[in-house]
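Reviewer 2 asked us to include a model.

Predict the structure of this chain.
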Amino acid sequence: MSKVVEFFGVSTASREATSEKLRALVDSQACPYRNSRCIKTRKSAPDVAIGTCVVTHSEKPVIICPHRMLERRKVFSDCIHLLSLHQPGNDFHVLPEVEVPGGMVDYFLVSSRGGKVRDFVGIELQTMDTTGTVWPERQRFLKSKGLRVDPSDVASKKPFGMNWKMTAKTILVQLHHKVETFSGWQKHLVLIVQDVLLDYIRREFATSHLESEARVGDPMHFHAYRIGTSGLELASRLSTDVEGVASALNRKTTAPHDLAKITATLEGRIGPATRLVLA
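Predicted model (structure tokens):
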């Protein structure tokens, strides 16, 4: 059985994964979660999208592309309760890649009215980084479905693995810098991960202080998702404060940053194209 679980958004075990469908996906390189071309490309051929959203590792499906977390935009609607200043009649907007003191935040979920920001939540997506290369496994899967591929790719013995430690440590360091800023603004920052990654973080880092019953008052929230039969499902929610993130890395906290500057940045980017429509 192939270790490729999902290819350009299509389950490799489904009836939809026909040779005709797969050939069309390889040609179009379309990502259904971004509604545009897949940007997970080969280093040696940047015009070729790999398209591997989910793979099997240690007999579990592991998400290796952050855009896979955008299915049905559920990760955004699951953060609405953290918009404590939101009121009925306000619009929701999703703004990608917003720079704050401490680095770039993947998305901002904004509650606005009349073009003015009433509240916001920062949202970071983190999935597993891989070691080695998934390409030979991808090519073997396509060959098994009758598609023509380079024989040398199929014969390749190059493996792939999961970079658990580096993935976890890198995101915790980034959160440490950013959550201080959000706490100073009295706003929330949410990390979106797969359940298997959160399980690893809880095992390997000093996170016993994380609240298993997430508290709205905490600035740092963790939303863990699993791949269910009907798609992405929220599995658990945890929360902590600035000191909680710092203690996981034995870091010290610093002073907050100016709220007015980030509010002006968000208001300058709000528009019809950023509006979040709830199903």
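The mean pLDDT is 93. The chain has two domains: 4-57+130-161, 68-127+165-274. We have added this to the supplementary material.
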